[in-house]
Amino acid sequence: MLNQYFQRDVSHICCSSYFNAMSCHEAVEVQLSTEYAFRKLNVLSLCTLQGGSFGVQGMLKEGTKHMSGLEEATFKNIDAAKQLSSCVRTSLGPNGMNKMVINHLDKLFITSDSATIVNELEVQHPAAKLLVMASKMQESEVGDGTNFVVVLAGELLIQAEELLKNGLHISEVIGGYNTALAKALEVLETLVTHSASMSVLKSPTELAEAIKPVIAAKQWGNEDLFASKIAEACVLAMPENPAAFNVDNVRVAKIIGNAVSGTTVVKGLCLTRSVLGTIHEVRDAKIVVYGVPVDSSTTETKGTVLLKSAEELKAYNNSEEDALEKTIKAIAATGANVLVCGQSIGELAMHFVEKYKMMVLKVPSKFELRRLCRTTGANNLVRLEPPAPEDLGTCKHVYLKEIGSTWCTIFDQEADNSKTATIVVRGSSMNIMEDVERAIEDGVNVVKSMTKDARFVPGAGAAELLLADALQQYGEAQPGLDQYAIQKFGLSLEVVPRTLAENSGLDATNIVAQMYAAHKAGSTSVGIDIVEGTTKDCGVLDLLVTKKEALKLATDAAVTVLRVDQIIMAKQAGGPKAPAQPAPYGD
Questions:
Q1: Over the stretch 156-215, which tens digit does the pLDDT of each residue have?
Q2: What keywords are annotated for this sequence in UniProt (predicted)?
Q3: To pair with 414 at 20 to 30 A between CA atoms, which of 8, 26, 189, 363?
């Protein structure tokens, strides 16, 4: 009735307003078009009332999910981040627990490394993915502190949730967190207690002391062994200009057998591959590297040869053999005595290579081939032809060695400044060696960070608690509402010493109180001694750049989650999903 009444009135107004200025025929057309428009409006209104959606949901495609507001969007995002943070929190510190993760390829990971854990969990929630991305960025930028990023970001969101429930606006929380971050970075510069010179990067003993806390967090009990091996390898691969240090020049070779105490360092490159011929050792080697098959040459197109007699067939075969022998002889004439091939080597080619007393090694991995070229100075040739003098690589000693039950080819430069060093890791299982490899990679990345900034702050939770105290005092002095967020930021930093104490089976509240008292008394380097279960200056140092990057990434991740007030998810496309492509090994 309402629609009919409204339709009649509007029609009457339209007709009466323009009737005097129009002809009768035009007025009838206007009235008919108006009636048609209102009939269409009635149909749309009826469809909406019978099952359509109102608001944003009615605007979007069917199947799209839309959530908005604190309860539906913000708090749900915070909860997802909290769950991820609590998952890796128990892995923080030397006494952190391992996680057993089995990924979609049924590969088993047993590790306490946060970057590996969050990467293999295949997190789907978009808010939790932000923390995963922050952890990956910390891993790529510094190589250490990934767990700190996830745990701190989760704690910042927990404290923000409490402020939001108490009535504080999101903009005040975000503003307070950004202000607190700027103040924390400023205070962190004043906490530097030790600054290493560039000479430390040339001293294995001093370098081992600097990276020992990083290794202790991953391999508690073996930190002395691995820190010394990493320092030795890094010093061997350190160029004249430390800023040009390349982490890829320190390689890891995993060989099953023995215990982890059997880990050694090779001055050069160790390949877990055996040679193909009978020559197993070469001194003062000249190395030629081919990225193409070493075999008889073939044409790119198919061809037909007409042979009329056995003599012609024999002559044809002899011509192929003579051509291949001529090529191998020319290669040997350049002085090359080690031939490395990235592809197949024919039987006939092997015969002639053996004839001219050359060691043969097949390296199908293009990454290992690239490292071999970098180690020896050889060029990877793309045509089977005699190399120029500048294409040949050199090595003091190339030999085959059996380590455990694995035959390895070692390119030993026998020099204290070799371009590449290899840490040969031993262990009873592949999982143990992979965890050791991750610890070694973290240690090498920290050495790389030291080439940029070699300043250190107190470790064992001391720096975080000093920042927490400074920020809470700074927050109390602020007049605006953001003071509450600044104080909560400081309170969030207490999560590190608390977690270290909890993971060591200690009373976290008592430990934190003792540390606060010691810091007030002037002993600012006092941290948690997990061995004796008390607080004292253990001499533990953390790299300043690690803390700075972790604070920035954790705060950015938390603020990004808080800025989201609506979640709009489209319906998933049909069909199977394409699997994520992993990064190539060693790249």
A1: 999 998 888 888 888 889 999 999 999 999 998 888 888 777 777 788 888 888 888 888
A2: ATP-binding, Chaperone, Cytoplasm, Nucleotide-binding
A3: 363
Q: Is residue 569 within a helix (H) or strand (E), and if so which, with residue range?
A: strand 566-569
Asked, for residue 200, whether it belongs to a domain, the answer is no
Q: For 379-431, what is the HEC assignment?
A: CEECCCCCCCHHHCEEEEEEEEEEECCEEEEEEECCCCCCCCEEEEEEECCHH
73 with 188, same domain? yes
Report d(CA 333, CA 358) in Å as an integer.
11
> Is-contact 35 3, C-beta < 8 A?
no
User: What pLDDT score does 318 carry?
Assistant: 58
Q: Write down the pLDDT at residue 4.
A: 45
Length, in residues, of the chain: 587
462/538 same-domain check: yes
One domain for residues 280 and 350: yes
Each residue's pLDDT tens digit, 99-124: 888 888 888 888 888 888 888 888 88
Last residue of a domain, one of 414, 448, 471: 414
| Assigned token pair, 269 | 């490159």
Q: What is the pLDDT of residues 7-39, one digit of tens each?
A: 444 444 444 444 344 444 444 444 445 454 445
- Do residues 514 and 487 share a domain? yes
* Predicted local confidence at residue 316, as pLDDT: 63
CA dihedral 521, 504, 489, 564 (to 10 degrees): 170
- Predicted confidence (pLDDT) at residue 347 exceeds the cutoff of 50: yes
**Residue 83 DSSP SS3:** helix
Residue 469: Cβ within 10 Å count: 18
* Structural domain of 372: 268-297+311-414
**Residue 532 resides in a domain:** yes
Instruction: Give the C-alpha separation, 359 to 571, whole Å.
Output: 60
Same domain, 520 and 462: yes
Number of domains, the chain:
3
**Same domain flag for 20 and 126:** no
Beta strands in 43-130 (DSSP E): 65-68, 99-102, 108-111
For residues 344 and 292, what is the distance between their CA atoms, to the nearest angstrom?
8
pLDDT at 12: 45
- The region, left, alpha or beta by phi > 0 then psi within -120 to 50, assigned to residue 354 is alpha
DSSP-derived pairing of the beta strands 534-536 and 264-266? unpaired
Judge whether 481 lies within some domain. yes
280 plus 358 within the same structural domain? yes
Give tens-digit pLDDT for 265-296.
888 888 888 888 888 888 888 888 888 888 76
Cα angle, residue 387 at apex, residues 385 and 390 outer, rounded to 5°:
155
- 406-412 and 268-271 strand pairing: antiparallel
CATH code for the domain of 540: 1.10.560.10
Whether residues 409 and 280 share a domain: the answer is yes
Instruction: Pick the closest to residue 135 from 87, 96, 189 (CA basis).
Output: 87
CATH number of the structural domain spanning residue 323: 3.50.7.10
- Per-residue b/e over 289-304, b at no fewer than 16 CB within 10 Å? bbbebbbeeeeeeeee
pLDDT score for 156: 92
Contacts of 48 (CB under 8 A, 6+ apart): 54, 58
Tell which of 358, 386, 414 closes a domain.
Answer: 414
